[in-house]
Amino acid sequence: MGADLGHLIDDYLQVRARWQLIGQLGLAAWAVALGIGVGFINNPLGPGAIRLEGWIGVAFTLFWIVGMINSINFIDGLDGLSSGIGLIAAVTLGIISLTTTVGQPYIALLCFVLAGALLGFLRWNFHPAAIFAGTSGTMFLGYTLALLSILGTAKVAVALLVLGVPILDTFWIIVRRLAGGRMPFSPDRGHIHHRLLDLGLSHTQSVLLIYAICGGLSILSLLLSGTGQVYAFLGLFVLFGIGLFILARRSLVAEELSAASYEPAEPPGPAGDDEASEAGR
To answer: Which pTM was predicted?
Structure first.
């Protein structure tokens, strides 16, 4: 209820990014105070897991929750995009929670309830949308997915892979903005969905392509073990960065060509004036 109220206030008052971040940290700290935290992560360098204890576990949990909130909020640039990605993630987390290795039927129930709500919402949110989630909706979705992924047995590796597109999109966007001397929360058209539109894909085609990628990552997360999921995410991290770089270069070249085509012609010289005078006669 507190998360909903805070996000509704943000939608109504258009709270600045720094105050939004403070509010997100407060919500994450509230979850930690209730005992929700990431106790371990799979070790990508060997067997077993890396224990996250004390302040390290608290810091990682805060980072995870705040990062997930902003990842879902950042990817909400096209009709139905964030809600569809959230639907895929909720179903995947629910299925993982029902496996014998995890065995969390109550967490699975919460995941499927969220998935059902998103499915009903997506019916009216898909392009052309009749209703919109807004900042309150996308941040609530990110917050809920973050908590569902760490309640009970940590499923952070699963969420990392399934939500790889919004997570990595957010990461590379922030890196690019900081490298350009801009604030990390300043708006621009550098997101993956904007790049797909610049390539000539339609609104619906861009959304469906990202759905397909997330669906493939969902299947991959169900087939791989915990360590395999981490390796898959690291591979996706590299491929995503290369893909964004190529798309950015293509967009830059297209903009330069478009600007060159509109350059004004040089004014005629004296000879041209004489020719025009002769033609006038």
So the answer is: 0.77
* Cα–Cα separations (whole angstroms), residue 37 to 41, 71, 118, 146: 11, 19, 25, 10
Q: Are 2 and 24 in contact (CB under 8 A)?
A: no
Using pLDDT thresholds of 50, 70 and 90, give the confidence band for residue 61. Answer: very high
Structural domain count, the chain: 1
The CA distances from residue 196 to 13, 30, 200, 235, 247, in Å, are: 32, 38, 7, 21, 8
Full domain range(s) for residue 73: 2-260
Would you say 135 and 11 are in contact if contact means Cβ atoms under 8 Å apart? yes
CA 156, CA 147: separation in Å to the nearest integer?
A: 10
* Residue 275 located in a structural domain: no
In a domain, 170, yes or no: yes
| Segment holding 163, helix H or strand E | none
pLDDT at residue 134, as a whole number: 83
In a domain, 280, yes or no: no
